[in-house]
Structures are given as structure tokens and as C-alpha cells.
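thought: fold this chain, then report.
action: predict
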Amino acid sequence: MPHPRSRPAAPPPSVPVAAVLLSLALLFAASPAAPAAPPPPVPSPGAPANGPPGGFRPGGYACDASKGLWDCVAACESGGDWHANTGNGYYGGLQFRQSTWEEHGGRDHAPRADLATREEQIQVAEEVLGTQGWGAWPHCGAPYRSYGRVHTVRKGETLTSIAADYGIEGGWRALYRANAARIGEDPDRLIPGTLLVIGLL
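observation:
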């Protein structure tokens, strides 16, 4: 007796491609998205930037010492207020103790540092620098220790008179060689306010 012919298997039902794509899209949409990276922290007011182009940032104050070293120290010490008198026992832009002010000739200018001009305070500060070094301003003076002793040119001064005042070996020529970049090509053209490096402390 002949065997019955086996029926061919029915083909699997076809799945439309569009339906597959839709299912995948719904699957990915349901997956939780990766959390976004947090935004960079906002620096607090007065915080130093990432590196000091042209000058140290003492106490968080961006400052270019080449434009006024003592202004940088004052910015750090008193926020740049040359007449600061907050009752903390220190006075003026550079925060002098009264005893330090008096011992270095400050009373020739004013009874207290906060009553003196910026220029007068700088003049006394340079005297303090000669006796105490930058340690007189332990935090705010720290970045300028490599400068050694400095002098800010005042009206009427010459390289000869400054060299004599500080007893510089080699006289005005040695002083000029050390500061030619600051003074320029003409040693006789000395501009008031120019910061001169006198020597190591």
C-alpha cells in the first residue's frame, strides 16, 4: 500500500520589516539615557585662574607685577585700598603696623600709613624691604622674593643718585645694566614710577 505523501511544512509567517524597526525604536526609547556630564564648577569670586600669565595672583587677585609690584601687594593686603583702616591694627594699602611705620620714617609723611599717599607708603615700604625683606609681607610678598630689593623711581632722581643712596658697587652703570630692560636705551631718561631692582636681599 503506498505511503501517503507528506505535506510540505508551512512557511513561517512573514514579519514586515517596518514592524521590526518600530519594535527596535520603541526598545531604545525605553532604555534610560546616560546621564549628561555635570557642568564645570563656577569659580568663586576672587578665585585665581588656571595659571598666572604675567604675574602671580596673591590672595586670589589677578595681578601683573610688571605694571606695579606694590599695587599687587596692596591688592592682596588690603584689596588695593591705600587708605585702609579697618581696626585690625594695620594701616594703609600695604598694612603697616604703626611701630613699623614709625621706625622706617613714616611719620615724616603722615601720622599713620592710611593717612599717607600711595607714593609715600611705597617709599616707606622700600625702607622696610631693606631691613626685613619680603618676609614683612609673609603671604602677599612671597611671590616677589626673587626680585630682591627694589626701588621705585621718584621725581628728580637719577641713576647716579639712586646708586649712591644704596651704595651700589659699580655705581650707576651697574644699576643701569641690571635694569636696562626697564629703563630703555637712554640711562638719563628715568621715568618716575619705574621699578628698579637694586639687588638680592
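thought: worth noting. Confidence is low (pLDDT under 50) at residues 1-6, 8-13, 28-60.
final: C-alpha cells above.
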